[in-house]
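Hi, here's the filled form for the chain we discussed.

Project: internal
Contact: R.S.
Residues: 285
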Amino acid sequence: MTNASTIAIGNELKVNRLGFGAMRLCGPGVWGYPADRDNALRVLRRAVELGVNFIDTADAYGPHVNEEQIAAALHPYPHGVVIATKGGSTRRGPGEWGRDGRPEHLLEACEGSLRRLRLDRIDLYQLHAVDPGIPLEEQVGALRDLRDAGKIRYVGLSNVDLEQLRRAQEIVEIASVQNHYNVGNRASEAVLEHCAARGMAFIPYFPLDAGDLHTVDALRPVARAHGATIWQIGLAWLLGHSPAMLPIPGTSSPAHLEENVGAAGIVLSDDERARLDELGATAAR
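And the returned structure, exactly as it came back:
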């Protein structure tokens, strides 16, 4: 993990710059428990053994299952391990997602996460997605109130554009943004640049989403040159693209987990990086 370096979350936390997204440890459609419950716990423990100290989840994963898995596997949490979770999404069934940004729902969701994670305070609590039916100021204000009450240490956002991020920053300090972003999908480039300029962590989800065939074809020769997989090259590109980046690749496979962590040791050449940079340039425009 040393090649990935570290990143600050707020003024008090520092984590290795390659985290773990725990969502894939749930059942199909991110619903219920997986068929092999013990394997999920082994993967979480192995991630920490490999030096991963940032675990990302949400109350909607399962729902509730993922937070319970994390506590079962890791509590009491090793020193330095940061658990980040999210609230504001609702579930009605496998693959079905809704939003509820009412302040009363967010307060209740946070209390539930505290219980399931067996924490007195959540280090990073993120608004999972902006509810278009509720004023943004009310949603972010609820998270500010949770911070002021000592329930959470830092506030994060997920699935936001630059205008929403700027509005939120007028209400409370924002420590991180979690958006869909990878080598072939850079629609959030402006958000990433904003985060980097202000010392905020940018957490790309689906960081191994290679995108269309054109993206896959571009990654293949670079992967061959390094004796790596295209997924490892996608992660290596993210880590080198911006010091604000905190990728959270997820998997339910111990072997794939070790492969992902190994991406931290891959250093792309200037030419390789230039070719991959050009690949997603149109997505950022």
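Let me know if anything looks off before we file it.
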